[in-house]
């Protein structure tokens, strides 16, 4: 879901993607994905953006109630303030998940074919050794 209110307010304040990306300490591409709704904007980011744009969070925040593609991963992220551990949430588009599933299935089939070829070679080696 494109963040129309955020875009409108950002434009009113004459900020571009690069400005907000630098302010949030993320790449311009990552910020663009957040504004397009491809990646979730965290509560902390909404707070920081609202301060920069001199607006209430409620006036710029838009959430997609139908979005249910949220996955979390235990990991460690290094930031300018040091290392932070915990759960971090990210949105993964469904088409990417499906592509990954198809790729995994293809790899499983290739592994089965490889295993069958190895077994056939082992049998052939045993026959030749006799």
Question: Would you kindly provide a written description of the structure presented here, covering whatever features stand out?
Answer:
The protein is an alpha+beta fold and about 130 residues long. The chain has helices at about 5-10, 15-25, 30-35, 45-50, 55-60, 95-130; strands at about 70-80, 80-90. The chain has a two-stranded antiparallel sheet with strand order 1-2. It is rod-shaped, with a radius of gyration of 24 Å.
SSE topology sketch:
Elements: H1 4-12, H2 17-24, H3 28-36, H4 43-52, H5 57-60, E1 70-79, E2 82-91, H6 94-129
Antiparallel strand pairs: 1-2
Outline of the structure:
58% of the residues lie in helices and 15% in strands.
